[in-house]
Design brief:
The strands form 3 sheets. This protein has a 10-stranded mixed beta sheet, with helices on both faces. A two-stranded antiparallel ribbon has the order 9-12. A two-stranded antiparallel ribbon has the order 10-11. It folds into 2 domains: 353 residues, Alkaline Phosphatase, subunit A, CATH 3.40.720; 94 residues, Non-ribosomal Peptide Synthetase Peptidyl Carrier Protein, Chain A (Orthogonal Bundle), CATH 1.10.1200. The longest helix is centred in the middle third of the chain and has 25 residues. It is built from 22 helices and 14 strands. It is α/β, with parallel strands linked by helices. The two termini are 46 Å apart. Bound molecules: magnesium ion and zinc ion. Magnesium ion binds next to helix 7.
Length: 531
């Protein structure tokens, strides 16, 4: 016995024995093993690598009329922990959104384009499913569509991301409490395509006029009916979402194929008659709903169109997507601060576009006089064009996405589909203008031997070729380079915000499977690991 330690008196000794026994009785063992939280909110910016952060930061720092000089994501980083995440799937260098989200959801290495499977092809329970099993509420929110790879990987198990019919049915069979996005076409029976049919007439009554009734299904299952039978309350527009009861499961499908992009969202957000909720509004509704469960919740919110802007070489739209997501990040951060007992993780599944501002020898600025003493006898004349800050303002002023411009062109009557029409469409909505010859280049057929740049094999999406060419043609004016039409392996930032003891571990470099395991542990979920 240590002679320096004073012996406790008999009374104090008994008291301390009772006290420590009580501690063991009443404090759950997990407190000793791991600090935990009640809720996890996972925010995924699809395609949001460090380069996309840079775009948003350039706006905040350099745009003449930036609405803020400090982004919410900066606040989240400065009050949380910042790490980097590697994303590769099993046996490949580069990841797609399906495998990446699967890894974040399950903690298992996945295979390219798989949904909710390990790389051998076995379904693995996701963090969402484990949270549900533990009695927590669960939610998925996305500005793409609910059956798209990122949300799908949290509550579906299918060999390929394109199997959206089956994914839709997995999602409702999984009893996810709140699902808010687009993607209605995978829930409607094939028969709706026949405008004379009874099923069309019936669904036309149920679903508001502004939504086109199309089906992507190859069968006649009506998943809206199936969802209702499973206790879902269905909503199709903003107003009915805002007023939806919070004691029933909620399925909101606000469009056929995709939610409006960030430019459209910014243009319409103050319109009272707006039919589509914003990403932030969907997130607010999901949090109101899920936080009614005393046992807590798991919520995944995806800003998915950052990736789409990367695939279409469209920096103006990408900037708006980043700023749109930043509003949601701000709300979630405030919510977590106010409610406590919550871990917020902000990350991405990969970088898209190998995007960046770059210096060039195009349009090198003229020599300038400077006041500084070193420039008394010489002019300031850098050899290259390092990019004028007004480029950021011009990107911000873009009025339509490249994809909207091309759809507008495609919708013209045949005889009006001329280079001149395309030039007018682009120049009417972009501060960066194209010439008639450039419009002709954009319209040349894909198999004409003309490709967007030397990396032609990396422009894999036929439907994006015109957008990619437009991006390439304007790139020298925008001081922007695009390295690919797909994804890169750049490690992506991961930001954790919440109790110090939990977020500490996110510092450093981790693989997406490790981030998944940290999130599951934070929720107090035990995870059997197979490798
Ligand atoms: Mg996605
Ligand atoms: Zn992508």
């Amino acid at each position: 016995m240590d002679y320096r330690r004073a012996k406790p008196s008999g009374y104090r000794k008994i008291y301390s024995v009772i006290f420590s026994s009580l501690l063991f009785l009443f404090i759950p063992q997990q407190v000793f093993a791991n600090p935990t939280v009640k809720n996890v909110i996972l925010l995924i910016g699809d395609g949001m690598g460090p380069q996309q952060y840079a775009l948003a930061l350039s706006y905040a720092r350099l745009a003449s009329n930036a609405h803020t000089r400090e982004l919410n994501l900066e606040k989240l980083i400065s009050q949380g922990e910042l790490g980097l995440m590697t994303t590769h799937p099993n046996n490949a260098l580069v990841v797609d959104s399906a495998a990446s989200a699967t890894q974040l959801a399950t903690g298992h290495y996945s295979g390219s384009e798989m949904i909710g499977l390990d790389y051998k092809g076995n379904p693995q329970k996701t963090i969402l499913e484990r949270a549900r099993d533990a009695g927590k509420s669960t939610g998925l929110v996305s500005d793409t569509r609910i059956t798209h790879a990122t949300p799908a990987a949290f509550a579906a198990h299918q060999p390929h991301r394109s199997m959206e019919d089956k994914i839709a049915s997995d999602l409702i069979n999984n009893h996810v409490d709140v699902m808010l996005s687009a993607g209605l076409w995978s829930f409607l029976p094939q028969g709706v395509e026949d405008r004379e049919s009874k099923v069309y007439a019936h669904l036309r009554q149920q679903i508001p006029e502004h939504i086109k009734l199309n089906s992507k299904r190859t069968d006649d299952r009506n998943l809206l009916n199936e969802a209702e039978a499973k206790g879902y309350h269905l909503v199709f527009d903003r107003e009915s979402m805002l007023t939806a009861p919070e004691n029933k499961k909620l399925l909101g499908l606000f469009d056929t194929k995709k939610m409006p992009n960030g430019i459209r969202e910014h243009q319409t957000e103050n319109q009272k008659s707006r039919k589509h909720p914003t990403l932030k509004e969907m997130t607010i509704k999901a949090l109101d709903h899920l936080s009614k469960n005393k046992k807590g919740f798991f919520l995944m919110v995806e800003s998915g169109q950052i990736d789409w802007a990367g695939h279409t070489s469209d920096a103006g739209t990408m900037l708006h997507q980043m700023l749109q997501f930043d509003k949601t990040i701000g709300y979630v951060m405030e919510w977590a601060e106010k409610n406590g007992d919550t871990l917020v993780v902000l990350t991405a599944d990969h970088e898209t576009g190998s995007f960046g501002f770059s210096y060039s020898n195009f349009d090198v600025p003229k020599a300038k006089r400077l006041e500084g003493s070193a420039f008394k006898d010489v002019k300031f004349k850098p050899k290259y064009n390092f990019g004028a800050p007004k480029i950021i303002d011009m990107l911000y002023q873009q009025k339509k996405s490249w994809t909207e411009m091309m759809s507008e062109f495609t919708a013209l009557p045949e005889e009006q589909k001329t280079a001149e029409s395309l030039m007018n469409i682009v120049n009417g909505s972009s501060e960066f203008k194209i010439s008639l010859a450039e419009a002709e280049e954009i319209l040349r057929p894909v198999d004409d031997g003309f490709y967007v740049n030397d990396f032609k094999e990396f422009y894999v999406y036929f439907n994006n070729h015109r957008q990619n060419r437009l991006g390439m043609i304007l790139s020298r004016h925008q001081n922007i380079v695009w390295g690919t039409g797909t994804h890169t392996d750049t490690p992506v930032p991961v930001v954790a915000f919440g109790p110090e003891a939990i977020i500490r571990q996110f510092n450093g470099i981790h693989h997406s499977t490790e981030i998944a395991i940290m999130m599951k542990k934070a929720l107090g979920l035990t995870i059997p690991q197979s490798h």
